[in-house]
Amino acid sequence: MTARVLVVDDDATVRDVVGRYLGEAGYQVDLAADGPTGLRAARERAPDAVVLDLMLPGMTGLDVCRALRAEDDRMPIVMLTALGEEDDRVLGLELGADDYVTKPFSARELVLRIGSVLRRSRPPESGAEVLVDGELRVDPAGRRAHLNGRELALTTREFDLLAYLLAHPGRAYTRSELLAEVWGWEFGDQSTVTVHVRRLREKIEADPTRPRRIATIWGTGYRYDPGVTSA
Question: Which residues form a coiled coil (predicted)?
Answer without folding.
Answer: none
